[in-house]
Design brief:
The complex is a heterodimer of chains A (293) and B (311).
Chain A: E1 6-10, H1 17-24, E2 36-37, E3 40-41, H2 46-50, E4 53-56, H3 68-78, H4 86-97, H5 112-124, E5 130-134, H6 142-155, E6 161-166, H7 169-172, E7 177-182, E8 185-190, H8 192-197, E9 203-209, H9 211-220, E10 224-230, E11 233-238, H10 243-256, E12 260-266, H11 271-282, H12 286-292
Parallel strand pairs in A: 1-6, 1-7, 4-5, 5-6
Antiparallel strand pairs in A: 2-3, 7-8, 9-11, 9-12, 10-11
Helix pairs in contact in A: 3-4, 3-5, 4-5
Chain B: E1 12-23, E2 26-37, E3 41-45, H1 52-59, E4 67-72, E5 75-76, H2 81-87, E6 88-91, H3 103-113, H4 121-128, H5 144-156, E7 162-166, H6 174-189, E8 193-198, H7 201-204, E9 209-214, E10 217-222, H8 224-231, E11 235-242, H9 244-253, E12 257-263, E13 266-271, H10 277-286, E14 290-297, H11 301-309
Parallel strand pairs in B: 3-8, 3-9, 6-7, 7-8
Antiparallel strand pairs in B: 1-2, 1-4, 4-5, 9-10, 11-13, 11-14, 12-13
């Protein structure tokens, strides 16, 4: 990970996201391999390495009886911020996260979104080079999540590297680099753009009804590899190099079968399209075996 | 309504008429009006405090409305709450499975609670959620995606006509998620209506229609495609410009741009239709920004959501 980069660890529960975070923050010991933070080896110099690290775990503790500012003072002391420096730094970071006006409010009286911002401020108070965020937006609504991400992206100006874990594609798509994790292993990594390129020219979106019939006709097409029902439409993965003819053929066969076709169009692959493709390549037949159980 | 909808809708299973809830001075739900047909899969998106949960509690017959009403198959939620509760199912995010009991025993237990240990029903439910051959596994030993399906089974064991699902597929990979949704679509085919609340666009995209709520009001209700085509009104642009934060300020100040946000290595802007993009590109270049590139993109559901419910 470089300075000023946001990397998303994307994977389901049990993929190894939290374990990786706990290894990076030195809470768990590596059995093999190496982690270096700012060039410092984590295993041999764990204390020095940790000074570069800010960590916001899934469940973080604040002192509800202390004010916002008092909480930050506590975290600054724990992280070794010199006594003369904590206050200006705390006020600066509160302004940054948008809690400047709430410095004297009790932490227990904060809303969920504000509490999360205070957690972020606490993780940043000692100016770490690397920030670890373990599913920071679980249970957070999309507006709050958007605001939180606007803050993270602004951190890049200060050359902080951010490692964030999430089970959600829509969230991972905001990172500059995405690492797909599955069963403790990296399935693929790259920028959202690069990852999507793997399926460029292979995804069709179909809106037509009745849905069941459309799904059956699409699945029967010899060049269609995967059919994904999506509420009011379908995402189809087609064999490489067959986009345009498949598009025309499907449009025709749907109309001939009496379906009301709204559109059959080529679309940019989503991260979800890519992830499903990778999982299927890794575990052929998995979806089918689970359907029939 | 877009042309992706069938021309004739089946009869409404749920009719919501002027539904409102007041807590003291605070209006939690403000004059909701919509209909849901049998077998529809409806999503509800909204920030915390937008009234989603209060709405669902009223539809479950757990909270009485201040004004307006709703009826489920003709049963009024105000006067027939008991009947309503026998016809709805609910799968909470923190679903209550008994880990020590097997999948089948969990279903039997809940079937008993609902007072309908009908012959063959348990087997039928196991089949419909794809867990027939895992019936004797302890719920605690099932992988997350299977537990979610079992929780769905528990919510439908008493044959509800309407089932409420709260973030039903959080924390699973997309194959497990799509499998879950295929079971929902199967249920929908058999006339069961599903109403899903979620904070995640990944889930909302699976719904046939999505409602967006803010401050107790329903701002839009349409297919995901329809929302992107009509509810947004503006057009979506990806804009590359370095340095990013100066680019953001310049784009936000540009005429015709309604909203601009940071999207990792670029900016996402919603602009009025027919934005003079060449002019914007020239002005960004003139401000000394580098790597300037603008491209029209398809709006995402999140673009629509933030445009309607943001700020």
């Amino acid at each position: 990970m470089g300075a000023g980069e946001i990397v998303a660890l994307l994977g389901p529960d049990g993929a190894g996201k939290t374990t990786l975070m706990r290894l990076v923050c030195g809470a768990l010991q590596l059995q093999a391999g190496q982690i270096r933070l700012g060039g410092i080896d984590l295993r041999s110099q764990v204390e020095q390495a940790r000074t570069h690290l800010g960590y916001l775990p899934q469940q973080f503790s604040l002192y509800p009886e202390l004010t916002v500012l008092e909480n930050l003072r506590f975290f600054a002391e724990v992280r070794g911020v010199p006594a003369g420096e904590w206050r200006p730094r705390a006020l600066q970071i509160l302004d940054f996260v948008g809690l400047g006006e709430f410095a004297d409010r009790r932490a227990g009286a904060l809303s969920g979104g504000m509490r999360q911002k205070l957690g972020l401020a606490a993780a940043l108070v000692h100016r770490p080079k690397v920030l670890l965020l373990d599913e920071p937006t679980g249970g957070v609504d999309p507006v709050t999540r958007q605001n939180f991400w606007q803050l993270l992206i602004r951190l890049l100006e200060e050359a902080v590297g951010v490692l964030i874990s999430t089970p959600y594609m829509d969230e991972a798509a905001r990172a500059q680099r995405v690492v797909f994790l599955n069963h403790g292993r990296v399935l693929a990594e790259g920028s959202p753009h690069t990852l999507r390129q793997a399926l460029a020219g292979r995804v069709l979106e179909v809106a037509a009804s009745p849905l069941r019939k459309v799904g059956r006709i699409a699945a029967a097409d010899p060049r269609v590899e995967d059919v994904q029902a999506m509420g009011d439409r379908f995402h189809l993965r087609v064999a490489a190099g067959s986009l345009a003819p498949t598009q025309r053929r499907l449009d025709r066969s749907l109309r001939q079968a009496g379906c009301a076709v709204s559109f059959v169009r080529a679309v940019e692959p989503t991260l979800e399209d890519v992830y499903v493709h990778l999982l299927q390549a890794e575990q052929p037949g998995r979806a089918a075996s689970e359907v029939h159980d | 309504m877009t042309d992706t909808q069938p021309a004739t809708r089946p009869f409404p299973v749920l009719q919501v008429i002027g539904l409102s809830k007041q807590f003291g001075e605070f209006t939690a739900v403000d004059d909701l009006n919509f209909e849901v047909s049998a077998g529809e899969v409806i999503g509800l998106l909204g920030p915390n405090g937008s009234g989603k949960t209060t709405t669902i509690r009223m539809l479950l017959g757990l909270l009485s409305p201040t004004r307006g009403t709703a009826n489920l198959l003709g049963h009024d939620i105000r006067s027939e709450a008991e009947t309503i509760r026998s016809k709805v199912g609910y799968m909470s995010q923190r679903f209550a499975l008994y880990d020590e009991l097997t999948a089948e025993e969990n279903l039997r237990f809940y079937a008993g609670v609902y007072g309908m240990p009908e012959a063959g029903r348990i087997e039928e439910v196991l089949e419909s959620i794809g867990l027939s051959s895992s019936a004797s596994m302890r719920a605690g030993d099932l992988p997350t995606g299977w537990r979610q399906r079992l929780a769905l089974g528990v919510a439908i064991v008493h044959r509800p006509v309407l089932v409420f699902l709260d973030e039903p597929t959080s924390g699973v990979d997309p194959i497990a998620r799509r499998l879950f949704w295929n079971h929902i679509y199967d249920l929908a085919d058999r006339g069961v209506t599903a109403m899903v609340t979620t904070h995640h666009m990944d889930e909302a995209e699976y719904c046939q229609r999505v409602g967006i709520m803010r401050r107790g009001r329903l701002l839009a209700l349409d297919t995901p495609t329809g929302l992107k085509q009509t509810a947004l009104r503006g057009e979506a642009w990806d804009i590359y410009a370095e340095p990013l934060l100066r680019g953001l300020q310049a784009v936000q100040a540009a005429p015709g741009v309604w909203r601009a946000t940071l999207a990792s290595d670029h900016l996402r802007a919603i602009a009025e239709p027919g934005l003079a993009s060449a002019k914007l590109e020239a002005s960004l270049n003139a401000e000394g920004l580098t790597g300037v590139r603008l491209s029209r993109v398809q709006p995402s559901l999140e673009d629509v959501f933030l445009a309607l419910a943001g700020d």
